[in-house]
Amino acid sequence: MAILESIAAANAAYSVIKTALGNGKETAGVISSIGKFLAAEENIKEAVNKKKNSPLTAITGGDEGDWEEFQALENIKQKRAELESYCRLYAPAGTWDRWIAWQNEARKQRQAARKEAEKRKEEQLEQIQIALGVIFGASGVILAIYYLGVYMGKW
Known about the structure:
Layout: H1 2-22, H2 31-52, H3 55-60, H4 66-90, H5 95-151
């Protein structure tokens, strides 16, 4: 479902950008739509990669929807090339190149944030395991002392 939502978002953003630029509006007004389009493109690529790497897809064969996903990616690639030419023609010089550089930096930051979140999750899991180990160990010691007391007739 995320793929379809991303495709719809990309198509909506593309139509806004194309209409605005075709009507001669300034590119500053469509930068947010360009951002939405490119974010939707990234989401589609991530969803397709996640689906390809899913163990469930490996079990079921995973052929369903492959053609549609391929077509969606091809359409996005074509629309991205059109957006690049629009930006190069109508935006101030170097806008597209600066956008690509900014996008690369943002991608690096998102990857670093993902790695940090995974690291925190692993640390939390380790802390939970240690706490459970201590609880079970203490419970075992208490039970052993109790049964030893019952066996020796102290209780």
